[in-house]
Write a structure and sequence with these properties.
Elements (H helix, E strand, L loop, with lengths): L2 H20 L8 H12 L1 H17 L10 H16 L1 H12 L10 H5 L2 H16 L4 H4 L14 H18 L6 E5 L5 H6 L5 E6 L2 H13 L7 E3 L13 E4 L6 H14 L5 E3 L14 E5 L2 E4 L3 H11 L11 H5 L5 H9 L5
Parallel strand pairs: 1-2, 1-4, 2-3, 4-5
Antiparallel strand pairs: 5-7, 6-7
Helix pairs in contact: 1-2, 1-3, 1-15, 3-4, 9-13
Protein name: Methyltransferase domain-containing protein
InterPro entries: SAM-dependent_MTases_sf (IPR029063)
Length: 349
């Protein structure tokens, strides 16, 4: 084992300690506690730089190369080590933000996600995507009489809702990746928009024409196959297998809509996140089956006092968009445990 490899192994043990520190509740993290762990880590920075320079010199001289590995393998290893060293300031910044995190509300003000040139531009682009995923006008004439046409919630509003749900999931400390369901998904564009937050996302739609056209559109976007299921939201019997359920008034008939809402809440497991961004949600107020945690966002099977505690935890979760790349993760080396702990806290590299 080279000096560089020994240093990286030792550093990996120290960064594991820092990852454990970041896994503490925010109230138990402190600047002195962080400094105590970071100080021995920081001492390796100069040593690693020197070791990398030595490794580079060895690589440039064929007489001193490792005979057990090819030159390409050694150069790949060297480049990966160099990349890890370059990440140092970004890692330090990433960790500093978590030492004393700032509380932020789950849902921003509507003006923050609806107003301004950038938000309008994003919603303009999403409107085009939504239109491309719709059947022809002739096919839409065959819509079921009790169903609304596929109405697009503005993308920036949906993103804010997804980010709130994602932060709540992190605060809940789930032991498996959350599953997302769009009830009355139409062309499936909200499934596509949910994927960065919830890689396992599906939708149900009662209109077979819409299912066929939407599935074809999603396939062109490389969305996982069979992400859109043909089903009646009032009869669907698999709500319990989802952790985040989104429904934007897919039915016109008030009785049918309430039947759908009742079906969802009868099956949803305690802790399931329900997102209903419309006026008139039957459980919006004083309903024992769920409690409101943020505008349009509810938690099934949880009492109001429990929701207050969950909201407090979720508001301490970072607001950075989740990011994950298997290839990049594999090269993180001694930083990986810190990056993974940071993701669980809502912070991304």
């Amino acid at each position: 084992m080279s000096d560089l490899e020994k240093m990286e192994t030792e550093l990996g043990q120290l960064t594991q300690q820092l990852a454990s520190f970041l896994s503490l509740p925010p109230t138990e993290r402190s600047t002195p506690g962080f400094a105590k762990i970071w100080r021995p880590i920081s001492r390796y920075r100069v040593q690693l730089r020197s070791a990398l320079q030595n490794s580079g010199s060895v690589l440039s001289d064929p007489r001193h190369r490792d005979s057990k590995r090819s030159e390409i393998e050694q150069r790949i290893s060297y480049n990966a080590a160099h990349m890890r060293l370059r990440l140092w300031p970004r890692i330090e910044d990433l960790v500093n933000k978590q030492v004393t995190p700032v509380r932020q509300e789950l849902m921003p003000q509507p003006s923050d996600y609806m107003e301004g040139a950038h938000n309008r531009y994003v919603n303009h682009l999403y409107s085009a995507l939504h239109t491309l995923a719709l059947p022809s006008a002739e096919a839409m004439m065959n819509l079921l009489s009790d169903a609304h046409p596929d109405i697009a919630l503005p993308a920036t509003h949906f993103e804010a809702l997804m980010h709130a749900a994602y932060r709540i999931c992190l605060a809940q400390g789930r032991d498996r990746p959350p599953r997302f369901l769009d009830v009355g998904c139409g062309g499936g564009t909200k499934i596509w928009a949910a994927l960065p937050f919830f890689p396992e996302s599906h939708g149900i739609e009662n209109n077979p024409t819409q299912v066929r056209v939407g599935a074809a559109a999603m396939a062109r976007l490389n969305v996982p196959e069979n992400c859109i299921m043909e089903a009646d939201a009032r009869r669907f019997d698999d709500y319990a297998n989802y952790d985040v359920i989104y429904f934007y008034r897919p039915l016109k008939d008030p009785d049918g809509l309430k039947e759908m809402e009742d079906q969802i809440m009868a099956q949803a497991r305690p802790g399931t996140i329900l997102i209903a961004p419309y006026l008139g949600f039957s459980a919006e107020q004083n309903d024992m089956r769920c409690s409101k945690i943020a505008p349009s966002v509810y938690i099934a099977g949880v009492a109001p006092y429990q929701v207050e505690a969950l909201r407090a935890r979720a508001e301490m979760i970072g607001t950075e968009a989740p990011g994950h790349d298997s290839a990049s993760d594999a090269a993180l080396g001694y930083w990986r445990s810190i990056v993974e702990a940071s993701r669980r806290n809502g912070y991304a590299l």
